[in-house]
Every structure is written in C-alpha cells, then in structure tokens.
C-alpha cells in the first residue's frame, strides 16, 4: 500500500480480541477468535481513512499475545504513533495483562499515544458477565494518560470510532508540531532582520 502515515501497534493477551479488531477495521468482517491461530511475531494490515478531508494510511501491527513472544513484540512497537492495548471485558486477567503491556511500552516509547480497548462488548449480558469495571479502567487510564474505548468486533460497535479518534489525534498533534516549527523559524528570521536594522541604520 506504500507509505504508512500512522503506525499503530496492538498489544494484549492472547485471545484478547486484537486480530478480530484488525479484521473488522480493515476488511469489515468478523471470523471469530475460535478460528484464529495464535499470532506469531506480528501480522500486518493497512487501510486508508479520510479525516476532515485528509487521507491517511493506517498501518496496524497485530502482535502476538503469548508470553513466549514478548521479546519479539517489542521489535514491532518501536516508533509507533499509537498503541491499542486490548483486554477482554469478560476476563479480568486480560486487563491485568494489559497493564503489563502498557508498562513495557512506556519504558521505550514514551511519546506513543495510548488507547485502552475493552473488546467483546457484545458478550456482556448475553453469554457472560462484565468482569472489568469501566470506572477502574478510566481511573487507570488517567494514570497513564490513555483514552478508553469499548468495542465489539462481531457487531462493529465502537471500532470505527476508535480508529477515527486515533487519526484525529494524530492530525492535531502534527498541526501543533508544524505550528511550533513555523513559529520557531519565524523567530529566527525576525532576529536576523533586527540585527540588520541595527547595523544599517
């Protein structure tokens, strides 16, 4: 697909819904986690999105959630613009594991923007009960400066909103950086003009 504008890494425990989330976003389909094999290393997907009239190519690295692939996963989240840390809303252990991945990520990628994503929302009050309290997640999110989303890859609920927000934040941050660079450049130019005025008049 060519150049990627936004690099997004997906982290989380195995069967936390990462691969289904990518499949729903990129292909708008749902296969179901029971048919997936564990990801080895990382799988890549990409999609173009339009935000406020701007076209962005989103690159997604779906990393392996198994503990034996932890060291490999670190290779793939290097220089990421955003990280979606997934946890299963019906599995409290997966949320504790999500905290581990946040901690690992922040050790080397402090500038990476964090998104905590509770998956499998469609299962709540149907097959299973909610095991991860929303307020506990938001309290933790405040600590690590993350945004919280709850999604269902089966129904598509919350998926577009998550990726749209990532793209929107990316564009806003780029605008701030460009504005700062522009101001700094103008400041240097102004100083040079002032110096010339002093010497010539």
TrEMBL record:
Enzyme nomenclature, EC number: 3.6.5.2
Membrane topology: Lipid-anchor
Pfam families according to UniProt: Ras (PF00071)
GO CC aspect terms: autophagosome membrane; cytoplasmic vesicle; cytosol; perinuclear region of cytoplasm; spindle
Primary location group: cytoplasm
Superkingdom of origin organism: Eukaryota
This protein's record includes keyword Chaperone: no
Cofactor dependency: Mg(2+)
Annotated compartments: Cytoplasm, Cytoskeleton, Spindle; Cytoplasm, Cytosol; Cytoplasm, Perinuclear region; Cytoplasmic vesicle, Autophagosome membrane
GO molecular function, one term: metal ion binding
Catalytic activity: GTP + H2O = GDP + phosphate + H(+)
InterPro entries on file: P-loop_NTPase, Small_GTP-bd, Small_GTPase
Listed Gene3D superfamilies: P-loop containing nucleotide triphosphate hydrolases
Function: The small GTPases Rab are key regulators of intracellular membrane trafficking, from the formation of transport vesicles to their fusion with membranes. Rabs cycle between an inactive GDP-bound form and an active GTP-bound form that is able to recruit to membranes different sets of downstream effectors directly responsible for vesicle formation, movement, tethering and fusion. RAB24 is an atypical RAB protein that presents low GTPase activity and thereby exists predominantly in the GTP-bound active state. RAB24 is required for the clearance of late autophagic vacuoles under basal conditions.
PANTHER family attached to this UniProt entry: PTHR47978
Quaternary state and interactors: Interacts with ZFYVE20. Does not interact with the GDP dissociation inhibitors ARHGDIA and ARHGDIB.
Protein name: Ras-related protein Rab-24
Encoding gene (name): Rab24
């Amino acid at each position: 697909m060519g150049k990627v504008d936004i690099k997004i890494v997906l982290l989380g425990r195995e069967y936390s819904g990462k691969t289904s989330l990518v499949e729903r976003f990129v292909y708008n389909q749902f296969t179901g986690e029971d048919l997936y094999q564990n990801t080895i290393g990382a799988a890549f997907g990409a999609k173009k999105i339009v935000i406020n009239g701007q076209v962005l190519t989103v690159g997604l690295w779906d990393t392996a959630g198994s503990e034996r692939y932890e060291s490999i996963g670190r290779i793939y989240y290097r220089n990421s613009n955003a990280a979606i840390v997934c946890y299963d809303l019906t599995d409290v252990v997966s949320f504790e594991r999500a905290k581990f991945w946040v901690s690992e990520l922040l050790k080397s990628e402090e500038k990476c923007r964090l998104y905590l994503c509770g998956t499998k929302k469609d299962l709540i009050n149907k097959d299973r009960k909610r095991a991860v309290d929303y307020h506990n997640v938001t309290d933790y999110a405040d600590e690590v400066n993350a945004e919280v989303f709850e999604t269902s890859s089966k129904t598509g609920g919350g998926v577009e909103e998550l990726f749209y927000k990532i793209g929107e934040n990316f564009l806003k941050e780029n605008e701030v950086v460009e504005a700062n660079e522009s101001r700094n450049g103008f400041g240097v130019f102004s100083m040079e003009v002032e110096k010339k005025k002093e010497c010539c008049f």
